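May I ask for whichever protein you like with its backbone structure tokens?
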Amino acid sequence: MSETTALEELPGELLMWVLIVSELLVFGAGLAVFLSLRIADPVGFSEAQDALNRTGAAINTIVLVTSGFLAAMALWWRENGARARACLALIGAALLGVVFLVIKVAEYAEKAAHGIYWDSHTFFTFYYLLTGFHAAHVVAGIVILLLVAWRDEPNNIEVGAAFWHMVDLVWVLLFPVIYLLQ
């Protein structure tokens, strides 16, 4: 009887976990810098934050959490013989990722219409940096989910869902820190 190590028990692929942890560290560092700069200019950050669309961001939170649920259900359905349902769930999760991006682009367009750009204030430098970097991960996640729907083996779904859950987790951290924390 051989004992398994923690790495062998990790769901999915080790390299995906290396990517996920490294991305979480990058986002964590960005949030740490953002929060430390907020301490230096609480009034300026609060005034800048008031220009954000909190309703759109809250809707985006619901959209991403729902898409994460669909990605998780895809694995369950695939493992329980409902291959077509799993594929549809992955496509649905990817489409909700597109909805997220549409709302985010509308938010960016609204800021531009009001003359708010990355160099308007330090708050907006980090707002665009962090949410833009996150949006790039949403795009990557959409591609991954669609590839996994095409090659819908359980291990592929597990790896794709793990990446998508990282995207969800980052947004669940960004949303309160950027949009709500006063």
